[in-house]
Amino acid sequence: MAIGVGAGLGALVLVSLYTVKEIFLGVMVLFLFLGMRELTEAFKSRDIRVPFIPVATGMVATPVVAYIWGSTAVVAAVSLTILALLVTRMTEGSDGYVRDVSAGALTSGWLVLMGGIVALLMAPGDGDHRIVIFVATTVASDIGGYFAGSFLGRHKMAPTISPKKTWEGFTGSALTCMAVGGWLVWWLLDGGRIWHGVVIGLAVVFTATVGDLIESMVKRDLGIKDMGTLLPGHGGVMDRLDSLVATAPVVWLLLELFVPTT
Protein backbone atom coordinates (compact mmCIF):
# COMPACT_ATOMS: atom_id res chain seq x y z
CA MET A 1 0.00 0.00 0.00
CA ALA A 2 2.81 2.42 0.92
CA ILE A 3 4.67 1.68 -2.31
CA GLY A 4 1.49 2.10 -4.37
CA VAL A 5 0.69 5.45 -2.77
CA GLY A 6 4.26 6.63 -3.27
CA ALA A 7 4.27 5.58 -6.92
CA GLY A 8 0.93 7.30 -7.47
CA LEU A 9 2.20 10.56 -5.98
CA GLY A 10 5.34 10.35 -8.13
CA ALA A 11 3.28 9.82 -11.27
CA LEU A 12 1.07 12.78 -10.35
CA VAL A 13 4.14 15.01 -10.00
CA LEU A 14 5.65 13.95 -13.33
CA VAL A 15 2.43 14.14 -15.35
CA SER A 16 1.51 17.56 -14.01
CA LEU A 17 5.03 18.96 -14.48
CA TYR A 18 5.49 17.78 -18.04
CA THR A 19 2.05 18.69 -19.32
CA VAL A 20 1.13 22.08 -17.86
CA LYS A 21 3.38 23.31 -15.05
CA GLU A 22 0.55 25.32 -13.54
CA ILE A 23 -1.20 22.03 -12.77
CA PHE A 24 1.72 21.08 -10.56
CA LEU A 25 1.46 24.47 -8.88
CA GLY A 26 -2.16 23.69 -8.02
CA VAL A 27 -1.27 20.20 -6.78
CA MET A 28 1.50 21.61 -4.62
CA VAL A 29 -0.78 24.26 -3.11
CA LEU A 30 -3.39 21.60 -2.36
CA PHE A 31 -0.93 19.32 -0.56
CA LEU A 32 0.63 22.18 1.38
CA PHE A 33 -2.85 23.35 2.36
CA LEU A 34 -3.70 19.84 3.60
CA GLY A 35 -0.41 19.70 5.49
CA MET A 36 -1.13 23.06 7.07
CA ARG A 37 -4.58 21.83 8.08
CA GLU A 38 -3.06 18.73 9.70
CA LEU A 39 -0.50 20.81 11.57
CA THR A 40 -2.99 23.34 12.92
CA GLU A 41 -5.33 20.52 13.99
CA ALA A 42 -2.42 18.76 15.72
CA PHE A 43 -1.65 21.96 17.65
CA LYS A 44 -5.12 21.78 19.17
CA SER A 45 -4.03 18.72 21.18
CA ARG A 46 -2.06 21.23 23.29
CA ASP A 47 -4.85 23.82 23.18
CA ILE A 48 -2.94 25.91 20.62
CA ARG A 49 -5.32 27.74 18.29
CA VAL A 50 -3.71 29.10 15.13
CA PRO A 51 -5.93 31.65 13.32
CA PHE A 52 -6.85 29.65 10.25
CA ILE A 53 -7.98 32.23 7.69
CA PRO A 54 -4.79 34.38 7.45
CA VAL A 55 -2.49 31.35 7.37
CA ALA A 56 -4.66 29.52 4.84
CA THR A 57 -4.83 32.63 2.65
CA GLY A 58 -1.06 33.00 2.77
CA MET A 59 -0.63 29.30 2.02
CA VAL A 60 -2.59 29.62 -1.21
CA ALA A 61 -1.41 33.08 -2.26
CA THR A 62 2.34 32.84 -1.64
CA PRO A 63 3.20 30.10 -4.18
CA VAL A 64 0.97 31.76 -6.79
CA VAL A 65 2.51 35.24 -6.48
CA ALA A 66 6.00 33.70 -6.26
CA TYR A 67 5.45 31.88 -9.54
CA ILE A 68 4.18 35.05 -11.26
CA TRP A 69 6.32 37.82 -9.74
CA GLY A 70 9.36 36.15 -8.20
CA SER A 71 11.27 36.39 -4.93
CA THR A 72 10.14 39.92 -3.99
CA ALA A 73 6.56 38.69 -3.96
CA VAL A 74 7.52 35.86 -1.60
CA VAL A 75 8.92 38.30 0.96
CA ALA A 76 5.82 40.49 0.70
CA ALA A 77 3.35 37.60 0.89
CA VAL A 78 4.93 35.91 3.90
CA SER A 79 5.33 39.23 5.74
CA LEU A 80 1.67 40.10 5.13
CA THR A 81 0.60 36.62 6.22
CA ILE A 82 2.34 37.00 9.58
CA LEU A 83 1.03 40.55 10.01
CA ALA A 84 -2.52 39.37 9.31
CA LEU A 85 -2.00 36.52 11.76
CA LEU A 86 -0.90 38.91 14.51
CA VAL A 87 -3.82 41.26 13.91
CA THR A 88 -6.48 38.56 13.54
CA ARG A 89 -5.55 36.85 16.81
CA MET A 90 -5.95 40.15 18.70
CA THR A 91 -9.73 39.84 18.39
CA GLU A 92 -9.71 36.83 20.74
CA GLY A 93 -8.00 38.59 23.64
CA SER A 94 -4.57 38.38 25.23
CA ASP A 95 -4.91 34.96 26.88
CA GLY A 96 -2.68 32.60 24.89
CA TYR A 97 -1.85 35.28 22.33
CA VAL A 98 1.91 34.65 22.25
CA ARG A 99 1.38 30.89 22.19
CA ASP A 100 -1.04 30.98 19.26
CA VAL A 101 0.75 33.52 17.08
CA SER A 102 4.07 31.73 17.69
CA ALA A 103 2.55 28.51 16.37
CA GLY A 104 1.12 30.47 13.45
CA ALA A 105 4.52 31.97 12.67
CA LEU A 106 6.02 28.47 12.80
CA THR A 107 3.40 27.27 10.33
CA SER A 108 4.06 30.23 8.06
CA GLY A 109 7.82 29.71 8.05
CA TRP A 110 7.59 25.94 7.74
CA LEU A 111 4.96 25.72 4.99
CA VAL A 112 3.92 29.09 3.58
CA LEU A 113 7.47 30.29 2.92
CA MET A 114 8.56 26.90 1.59
CA GLY A 115 5.64 26.84 -0.82
CA GLY A 116 6.88 30.13 -2.23
CA ILE A 117 10.40 28.77 -2.62
CA VAL A 118 9.20 25.68 -4.50
CA ALA A 119 7.28 27.99 -6.84
CA LEU A 120 10.50 29.96 -7.45
CA LEU A 121 12.22 26.69 -8.27
CA MET A 122 9.51 25.88 -10.80
CA ALA A 123 9.19 29.31 -12.42
CA PRO A 124 12.10 29.27 -14.96
CA GLY A 125 11.79 27.68 -18.38
CA ASP A 126 13.57 24.56 -17.11
CA GLY A 127 11.66 24.65 -13.85
CA ASP A 128 10.08 21.28 -14.55
CA HIS A 129 13.54 19.69 -14.56
CA ARG A 130 14.55 21.58 -11.42
CA ILE A 131 11.50 20.30 -9.57
CA VAL A 132 12.26 16.73 -10.66
CA ILE A 133 15.82 17.08 -9.32
CA PHE A 134 14.51 18.48 -6.04
CA VAL A 135 11.82 15.84 -5.53
CA ALA A 136 13.78 12.83 -6.82
CA THR A 137 16.88 13.61 -4.76
CA THR A 138 14.79 14.05 -1.62
CA VAL A 139 12.87 10.82 -2.24
CA ALA A 140 16.20 9.07 -2.89
CA SER A 141 17.18 9.94 0.67
CA ASP A 142 14.11 8.12 2.01
CA ILE A 143 14.56 5.10 -0.25
CA GLY A 144 18.31 4.72 0.30
CA GLY A 145 17.94 5.20 4.03
CA TYR A 146 15.05 2.73 4.27
CA PHE A 147 16.84 -0.14 2.54
CA ALA A 148 20.25 0.44 4.12
CA GLY A 149 18.66 0.90 7.53
CA SER A 150 16.45 -2.17 7.17
CA PHE A 151 19.23 -4.56 6.18
CA LEU A 152 22.32 -3.03 7.80
CA GLY A 153 21.05 -0.69 10.52
CA ARG A 154 22.69 -1.29 13.88
CA HIS A 155 23.73 2.06 15.35
CA LYS A 156 20.93 4.44 16.34
CA MET A 157 21.27 8.03 15.18
CA ALA A 158 18.79 9.80 17.48
CA PRO A 159 16.97 7.16 19.56
CA THR A 160 15.10 9.64 21.73
CA ILE A 161 13.70 11.50 18.69
CA SER A 162 13.33 8.92 15.90
CA PRO A 163 14.19 5.39 17.12
CA LYS A 164 14.23 3.85 13.63
CA LYS A 165 16.95 6.10 12.20
CA THR A 166 20.44 4.60 12.09
CA TRP A 167 23.84 5.77 10.91
CA GLU A 168 23.89 2.94 8.38
CA GLY A 169 20.61 4.23 6.99
CA PHE A 170 22.05 7.75 6.84
CA THR A 171 25.03 6.44 4.86
CA GLY A 172 22.68 4.69 2.44
CA SER A 173 20.74 7.93 2.06
CA ALA A 174 23.91 9.88 1.34
CA LEU A 175 25.14 7.50 -1.35
CA THR A 176 21.74 7.32 -3.05
CA CYS A 177 21.23 11.10 -2.93
CA MET A 178 24.64 11.83 -4.43
CA ALA A 179 24.16 9.25 -7.20
CA VAL A 180 20.67 10.47 -8.14
CA GLY A 181 21.61 14.15 -7.84
CA GLY A 182 24.76 13.78 -9.92
CA TRP A 183 22.94 11.93 -12.68
CA LEU A 184 19.87 14.17 -12.87
CA VAL A 185 21.69 17.52 -12.79
CA TRP A 186 24.05 16.36 -15.55
CA TRP A 187 21.22 14.88 -17.63
CA LEU A 188 18.47 17.48 -17.25
CA LEU A 189 20.12 20.91 -16.95
CA ASP A 190 22.13 22.72 -19.61
CA GLY A 191 25.47 23.50 -18.01
CA GLY A 192 24.87 21.09 -15.15
CA ARG A 193 27.84 19.00 -14.06
CA ILE A 194 27.91 15.70 -12.23
CA TRP A 195 29.78 17.26 -9.33
CA HIS A 196 27.05 19.92 -9.01
CA GLY A 197 24.51 17.18 -8.47
CA VAL A 198 26.77 15.30 -6.07
CA VAL A 199 27.11 18.40 -3.91
CA ILE A 200 23.36 18.95 -4.04
CA GLY A 201 22.78 15.31 -3.09
CA LEU A 202 25.15 15.60 -0.16
CA ALA A 203 23.31 18.70 1.05
CA VAL A 204 19.93 17.04 0.58
CA VAL A 205 20.77 14.04 2.76
CA PHE A 206 21.37 16.42 5.66
CA THR A 207 18.29 18.60 5.07
CA ALA A 208 15.99 15.63 4.42
CA THR A 209 17.16 13.90 7.59
CA VAL A 210 16.87 17.07 9.65
CA GLY A 211 13.41 17.76 8.20
CA ASP A 212 12.23 14.34 9.30
CA LEU A 213 13.71 14.81 12.77
CA ILE A 214 12.10 18.23 13.11
CA GLU A 215 8.68 16.77 12.43
CA SER A 216 9.40 13.93 14.86
CA MET A 217 10.21 16.51 17.54
CA VAL A 218 6.94 18.35 16.87
CA LYS A 219 4.93 15.12 17.06
CA ARG A 220 6.62 14.04 20.28
CA ASP A 221 5.96 17.40 21.88
CA LEU A 222 2.31 17.23 20.81
CA GLY A 223 2.01 13.59 21.90
CA ILE A 224 0.89 12.18 18.55
CA LYS A 225 2.21 9.36 16.33
CA ASP A 226 1.26 10.68 12.88
CA MET A 227 0.05 14.06 11.69
CA GLY A 228 -2.87 12.38 9.94
CA THR A 229 -4.12 9.30 8.10
CA LEU A 230 -4.84 10.65 4.63
CA LEU A 231 -2.08 8.66 2.86
CA PRO A 232 -2.32 4.89 3.56
CA GLY A 233 1.02 3.45 4.60
CA HIS A 234 2.53 6.92 5.00
CA GLY A 235 0.46 8.63 7.68
CA GLY A 236 -0.51 12.22 7.07
CA VAL A 237 0.46 14.66 4.34
CA MET A 238 2.95 16.33 6.68
CA ASP A 239 4.64 12.97 7.21
CA ARG A 240 5.55 13.10 3.48
CA LEU A 241 6.23 16.82 3.25
CA ASP A 242 8.64 17.09 6.20
CA SER A 243 11.80 16.28 4.21
CA LEU A 244 10.68 18.20 1.13
CA VAL A 245 9.98 21.52 2.87
CA ALA A 246 13.35 21.39 4.65
CA THR A 247 15.16 20.58 1.40
CA ALA A 248 13.51 23.12 -0.94
CA PRO A 249 15.52 26.24 0.01
CA VAL A 250 18.86 24.44 -0.14
CA VAL A 251 18.21 22.92 -3.58
CA TRP A 252 16.94 26.25 -4.89
CA LEU A 253 20.02 28.13 -3.63
CA LEU A 254 22.52 25.56 -4.91
CA LEU A 255 20.90 25.32 -8.33
CA GLU A 256 20.90 29.12 -8.61
CA LEU A 257 24.60 29.06 -7.71
CA PHE A 258 25.63 26.22 -10.05
CA VAL A 259 23.18 26.65 -12.96
CA PRO A 260 21.70 30.14 -12.61
CA THR A 261 18.44 30.97 -14.34
CA THR A 262 18.40 33.64 -16.99
How would you summarize this macromolecular structure in one to three sentences?
By secondary structure, the chain is mainly alpha-helical. It contains nine helices and two strands, in the order ααααααββααα.
Characterization of this structure:
The chain is mainly alpha-helical. It has helices at residues 2-17, 21-43, 52-69, 71-90, 97-122, 127-152, 167-188, 194-222, 238-258; strands spanning 156-158, 162-166. Strands 1-2 form a two-stranded antiparallel sheet. Helix 3 (52-69) runs antiparallel to helix 4. The model has no long low-confidence stretch (mean pLDDT 89).
Any descriptors?
mainly alpha, 77% helix
Which segments are poorly predicted (pLDDT under 50) over 5 or more consecutive residues?
A: none
Tell me the number of strands. 2
Percent range for helical residues? over 70%
Q: What fraction of residues sit in β-strands?
A: under 5%
Please report the number of helical segments: 9
Question: How is the biggest beta sheet arranged?
Answer: 2 strands, antiparallel
| Estimated radius of gyration | 18 Å
Global shape: globular
Distance between the termini: 42 Å
Helix and strand content put the structural class at mainly alpha
Instruction: Record the strand order, biggest sheet.
Output: 1-2
Order of helical and strand elements: HHHHHHEEHHH
Write down the overall mean pLDDT: 89
Give the secondary structure arrangement, pairings included.
Layout: H1 2-17, H2 21-43, H3 52-69, H4 71-90, H5 97-122, H6 127-152, E1 156-158, E2 162-166, H7 167-188, H8 194-222, H9 238-258
Antiparallel strand pairs: 1-2
Helix pairs in contact: 1-2, 2-3, 2-5, 3-4, 3-5, 4-5, 5-6, 5-9, 6-7, 6-8, 6-9, 7-8, 8-9
